[in-house]
Structure formats: structure tokens, C-alpha cells
Design brief:
The protein is mainly alpha-helical. The protein is about 35% helix and about 5% strand.
């Protein structure tokens, strides 16, 4: 059994919003998502990389062709053909769902019991489907028992190909990995997550992202990679004018770009020089006595 994954940010995704507004007669219509969900479950069971034949869709709904066209226009599907059979393929299926080579975890519990009670204990059960006919208690190599103790006469071993260092030896590459620059993120996903966090605040429930220009989206994603989206949310809420909240997310861009870069040196305190005039208590930048004397001399 496999699972078709649905992102919990889907309701706020710009593609989902465009589908709701794409009906030729209704103001809002979400019926294509029913077809999209059924198709996702079907493709997940088939494990075919997210392809659904058009004939299968037509069995579920009389308006399947029209709804599929709306999903294609929004970018959630794209037309495709497999073995001369026309259909549709999910966008970025392999990034979000198990592929053909992914393991099937439906038997994970039974296989775990087999490893614990049969393999580790050196036993063979006729009722276990994971025990083969050629298995005998003596045919299995000694392995660690279930509580981590090594079997008798088996010296400690370590996989030379394992990326994990010995527990008593520090990993010299750990510091370098910790300072690895942030990896690029998908613009649509990162901005949608940021917008959904902003919309949790009453004054920003209507914040829009559909007016973003490519260079603005790239700048925001770069700031997310540097500071994290929660930092941007905190700055936006702190500088928000609640009597006149912005309508688009790029209105916060100037404030976000002014956030100090992590690791940047702190600003040095600049002290004023005392006023050199005798008896004056001000500084060279602001002195009340100097200002009064200048005004009296006019």
C-alpha cells in the first residue's frame, strides 16, 4: 500500500486559487480537486510516476475532460502519453511521492518482527513468509541480538563504507558542513509558505503573491534562505501599519533587505565630541548655547 501526499499548504497555493476562479460560470469552484485527489490515489497505487490515463478519468466524472483542462492550465498537470494511451501526468510527482523504485513499507512491521525474532535469534519459522526454505539456524551468520549485544565470538565490526565516523573519533568535516551556504529553494513553495504564515495575522489575511515579478520573487527566496521565513514574518509584523496594511507581499521587500546579514559586525557606537566653547554643555553636533548665540546674533 502506498500513500498519495497532499501538502497542507495546498489551500493557499496560487495554483489552487487560480483553479477555484477558473470556472466559466461560477465565481468559485473547487470540483477539479476531487478529480485531482482520485487521480493521485490511483497513480500512487500504480506507482507509475504520476501518470493517469484520460479513459480512467472519464470513468469518474462526466466533466473530467473540462476539469483536467483547468488543472493543466493551472500547472498541476501536463498532458502526456504512455504506450499510445493519452492522459495526464502530475507536476513534480517524484519530488513529492514515492517513485517506482521506492520501498514498499506495507510489510515493515512483519519484516521487523522477522529480523528481531528469527534472524537475530538464529531461528527459522515455517509460518513466516520472510524465512526461506533454505534457512537453517546454522546457516545464518552471527548478528547482534535485539538489545544491541554482539553474538558470542563475533568481534565488533564497522562498515568501511559507512559515512558515520567512530563514536570516539570526531568528524573533521562536521564544522565545514555546519557552515555550508543555504541551498536554493523552490520559489513557488517558499513564497507560498511565507505568505501562509503572514496570513495568520488579521491585518494580512488578504496579502497577495500573484503580482510578484521574477526578480522580486528571487530576492524574497534569497532572503528566506539567509534569514529563514519566520524572521521575515517577525519583521513584517513589527513594521506593519495596521491602519493601512499592504496588499502585496513585495511591499515588505525593502524592510526585509535592510535586515543585517547573519554574522555581520555590530554597529559601533559613535560618541559626540563636547563643544569646545567655554561654558557650553552641548556637543559639536548639538549645543543649546551655540544655537542661542547664533540666533541672538542675527
Amino acid at each position: 500500500m502506498t500513500w498519495f501526499r497532499v501538502d497542507d499548504q495546498l489551500p493557499d497555493n496560487r495554483k489552487a486559487r487560480s483553479i477555484r476562479r477558473s470556472h466559466p460560470e461560477k465565481t468559485r469552484d473547487s470540483s477539479p480537486f476531487g478529480l485531482w485527489t482520485l487521480a493521485g490515489a490511483w497513480a500512487g497505487r500504480q506507482r507509475n510516476g504520476g501518470f493517469v490515463p484520460a479513459e480512467v478519468l472519464e470513468e469518474w466524472d462526466d466533466d473530467a475532460t473540462a476539469m483536467a483542462a483547468r488543472l493543466v492550465d493551472a500547472g498541476l498537470w501536463r498532458p502526456d502519453e504512455v504506450d499510445d494511451e493519452p492522459g495526464y501526468r502530475f507536476h513534480d510527482w517524484n519530488d513529492m511521492n514515492p517513485g517506482v523504485e521506492a520501498p514498499d513499507y506495507s510489510d515493515a512491521g512483519a519484516q521487523g518482527n522477522h529480523m528481531r525474532w528469527h534472524v537475530r535469534e538464529g531461528k527459522v519459522s515455517k509460518t513466516c513468509r520472510f524465512c526461506t526454505d533454505t534457512d537453517t539456524p546454522d546457516s545464518r551468520p552471527p548478528v547482534a541480538p535485539s538489545r544491541g549485544r554482539l553474538a558470542p565470538d563475533s568481534p565488533p565490526t564497522r562498515d568501511p563504507e559507512s559515512p558515520r565516523p567512530d563514536p570516539t573519533r570526531p568528524d573533521p568535516t562536521a564544522a565545514a558542513r555546519a557552515t555550508t551556504p543555504p541551498q536554493p529553494v523552490d520559489n513557488d513553495v517558499a513564497i507560498d509558505i511565507l505568505a501562509s504564515k503572514l496570513r495568520r495575522y488579521t491585518a494580512l489575511t488578504g496579502i497577495r503573491t500573484d503580482k510578484l515579478k521574477p526578480h522580486q520573487a528571487a530576492a524574497i527566496c534569497n532572503l528566506i534562505a539567509i534569514h529563514g521565513d519566520q524572521k521575515l514574518v517577525d519583521v513584517a509584523v513589527r513594521t506593519l501599519r495596521r491602519d493601512d496594511p499592504p496588499q502585496t507581499i513585495q511591499a515588505f521587500l525593502a524592510g526585509w533587505e535592510s535586515i543585517p546579514h547573519p554574522g555581520a559586525p555590530a554597529l559601533a557606537l559613535v560618541t559626540d565630541t563636547p563643544c569646545p566653547a567655554g561654558g557650553h554643555t552641548g556637543t559639536t553636533r548639538f549645543c543649546i548655547q551655540c544655537a542661542s548665540e547664533s540666533k541672538a546674533a542675527r
